[in-house]
Design a protein that fits this description.
64% helix, 0% strand, mainly alpha, 210 residues, 7 helices
Length: 210
Amino acid sequence: MVNNDRDASESTPLLDSGSGIRPTPPSVFQGRRLACAAVLLAESLERIAFYGITSNLVLFLNSSPFYWEGTTASQAPLMFMGVTYLISPFGGWLADAYLGKFLTIAASLVLYFIGMMFFPFISNEDTRTNLCGAELAFPVEPPDCLNAVSASSSNVTCPTPRPAYCGPVIYSGLFLIALGVGTVKSNITPFGADQVQYKYSHPNPKISLK
């Protein structure tokens, strides 16, 4: 008799399900699949664009016709990523205080697109000449300038280093992209979570899913 009572108590559910059949709660994606797909697609394309820039920027700046020095070209993606992460708190504040997540994301994607359009224009020779001017020539350096010790001990005048060609235009485009990336980064995840927020009540009144 004791064993039967123990078996009955062990088979009793911990949560009271009531006397009737528990209805199946509706899916959190019901009526929101298209919105969730749009958010996921936008985030995926944004990540592809971001990592495409950071992984190819140094090679782009080292190649023709820019020929940036290695140190200068390496600084560009570091500065770009630094501005990106510093802008993120500002993007969250802007969405919460003034524009809302949707308008903030839309405006940041517009800035993102404008900044990305800088690079096709500077890759074209005609538009690059209008934006950046003529390509800079490499200064001829005497052999003594290659050795810092001999250059300082001799009376040889060494030319100044070649400035970064098209630098202001490239940094302007990177800054616009960084504004867009930082603002999207801080708002796209909570905006996507808002699309699947559970607003239905559980059949058991003791449990709240709101």
